[in-house]
Automatic annotation (TrEMBL):
Protein source organism: Bosea caraganae
GO terms, molecular function: hydrolase activity
Biological classification of the source: Bacteria, Pseudomonadati, Pseudomonadota, Alphaproteobacteria, Hyphomicrobiales
Pfam families: Metallophos (PF00149)
SUPFAM superfamilies: Metallo-dependent phosphatases (SSF56300)
Calcineurin-like phosphoesterase domain: residues covered: 3-201
Name under which the protein is recorded: Metallophosphoesterase
Length: 283
């Protein structure tokens, strides 16, 4: 049995530290797990697409995690694929370069006993950027090299919310066209598991024979209107042959913040617009 820690959506910031205490509690609890690696699945930042300081702060936080750390970007790190949640923060070459400079690779392969985990940059799917084609070629190669292994795909956004045939674009998941292309790629391998964050809820479902695991957030509760457990925490996955056990860890003292309350019930549209709340004052 091999254990892997998954931390998702911590939303760290040197100036807007609302969730800093949650990060510290999760970081310390995760360090006590005998894990092969720690995956940080996107939205490391609040305003990463436009802030060197935020990305540098997130990089410093990651450096204090023990062992092998495998981060992936989210929309709060490098911007969204078009049309996006915020038209002023669409993924582009400059934002990708900021991630490269401060964090490093935006895709990776990690092999366990009988499993291959492939981490990809969800914000590239449907972006039209040159790196999208590069990632697709890389994914094809990694899936070919992983023949004989069970494969788990890790990305920030889920492939879909309820059904793989969802036809309307949504900020909650990949777009219909890039999703269809990705699914065709995945069918070439023994894909068993898709792990995503983004929605700030925990859900674990098998759809058409493929298991889809949504990770909880370390920052704030998921919004209303979607099924799942909205409480904050992190996941520990136990890989043991065909079986993957999932434990959701909620360290004592972690707070499932209400985002609407933090944004003062509509006074601020985005967290980055809020008055400063440095991490040392956030508690």
């Amino acid at each position: 049995m091999t254990r892997v820690v998954f931390l998702s959506d911590p939303h760290l910031s040197p100036t807007h530290g609302f969730f800093w205490q949650n990060w510290l509690l999760a970081r310390d609890a995760a360090a006590r797990v005998d894990a092969a690696c720690t995956i940080v699945n996107g939205d490391l930042c609040i305003d990463g697409p436009d802030s060197d300081a935020e990305m540098a702060f997130a990089a410093t936080a990651l450096a204090l995690l023990p062992g092998t750390v495998l981060p992936l970007p989210g929309n709060h790190d490098i911007g969204d694929e078009p049309p996006g949640q915020d038209p002023n923060q669409i993924v582009n070459e400059a934002r990708l370069a900021r991630w490269d400079t401060f964090i490093g690779a935006d895709r990776w392969r990690f092999r366990l006993d009988g499993w291959t985990l492939l981490g990809v940059n969800a914000q590239l799917f449907g972006s039209g950027l040159a790196r999208e084609a590069e990632q697709n070629d890389w994914l094809d190669a990694m899936l070919a090299e992983s023949r004989g292994d069970r494969v788990g795909l890790v990305l920030h956004k889920p492939l879909f919310v309820e059904s793989p045939d969802e036809a309307l674009p949504s900020i909650a998941s990949l777009g219909p066209a890039p999703r269809g292309e990705l699914v065709q790629r995945l069918c070439r391998a023994d894909i068993r598991l898709v792990v995503s964050g983004h929605l700030h809820k925990h859900r674990d479902r098998s759809i058409d024979g493929l298991r889809h695991l949504w990770l909880p957030s370390l920052a704030f509760s998921g919004g209303r209107g979607l099924d799942g457990d909205a409480r904050c925490g992190f996941a520990v996955l136990d890989f043991d042959g065909d079986h993957v056990g999932v434990e959701i860890v909620r360290p004592q003292g972690i707070v499932s913040h209400d985002l609407d309350a933090i944004k003062q019930h509509g006074r601020y549209r985005f967290l980055r617009e809020m008055p400063p709340c440095p991490p040392e004052l956030a508690a």
